[in-house]
Amino acid sequence: MDHLLSDVQDQYYNAENDRDRHQILAQVVHSIPLRTVQDYIPNLTRYSYSKARKETIRRKTKFKAFSKNRRKVRYRKSDVLLFVEFVTSPLVSVNLPFGETKAKMSSGLKINIPNTVRKYRDHEIILMFRQWLKEINQEDVKISYSTMKRILKTCVASRKVALSCVDYYLA
Length: 171
Known about the structure:
Transposase
């Protein structure tokens, strides 16, 4: 214990700033009282000690957050297919192929898929989809924003970029 605290003392005095000092103290303050640490670092204030304790608590909660079980949310297949159909519709995508994307199936088969061009950004597509659901009275379709964003990220497509301003500038 004596050797450990002397190492902490050396690191504490060699630290360049207060943040580094708090990080160093955070390694031991969860199990060693203030008075014992002050024997090795006499100019240690209660404030610095409490900042280091807060850092220790923050680290513990950070690691606990990763160990939580993730909750899986299942969606109806028909809802997901409805969203994919909307994304591939002429309203959102241009049906002209724009290059090719190589995809690997779960069976190991490799296929080439034509890459399409999307007219809108992901956020705009999601807002359009939600508005479209209201128009066709299918508001019971429940897919979260993050899931739709992941689907759009997975369904590869290029985004259309307007170059008309550049053409006018060059002319």
